[in-house]
Amino acid sequence: MIGAGTYADNATCAVSATGHGEFFIRFAVAHELAARLRHRGEDLPTAARAVIDELGQIGGSGGLVAVGRDGGPVLPFNCSGMYRGYVEADGVVFTAIYDEPYRRA
Asked: How confident is the model at residue 100 (pLDDT cuts 50, 70, 90)?
């Protein structure tokens, strides 16, 4: 659903989220992240972490992958693990599952 699990605009970021869908819909997680960048002036890592933390406070579990205007990724989650990864501009692939440092794949 646009705004809940996915959202993108050129001014802020692109977001793809996963987790307990009803909570993501109720909180409009993906749009909320973009709105914090646009209207509060928060940076992407701060806004993404805050959105996922607040989602957890209302009972929602999951995470998101977001890419900012500069191409930098953030991948916060509030559950035991979330398969995630990214590829840097030089082609180096990083992956992680739990709350551990990313490793080169």
From this structure: confident
Sign of CA dihedral 88, 10, 61, 59: positive
Domain interval for residue 69:
6-104
pTM: 0.90
DSSP structural state of residue 77? B
pLDDT in tens, 20-43: 999 999 999 999 999 999 999 999
Q: Spell out the alpha helix ranges (H) of the chain.
A: 21-27, 29-35, 44-57
pLDDT tens for residues 51-78? 999 999 999 999 999 999 999 899 999 9
Q: What is the CATH number of the domain that holds 69?
A: 3.60.20.30
How many domains would you assign to the chain? 1
Q: Read off the DSSP letter of residue 92.
A: -
Pick left, alpha or beta for residue 52 (phi over 0 → left; psi -120 to 50 → alpha; otherwise beta). alpha
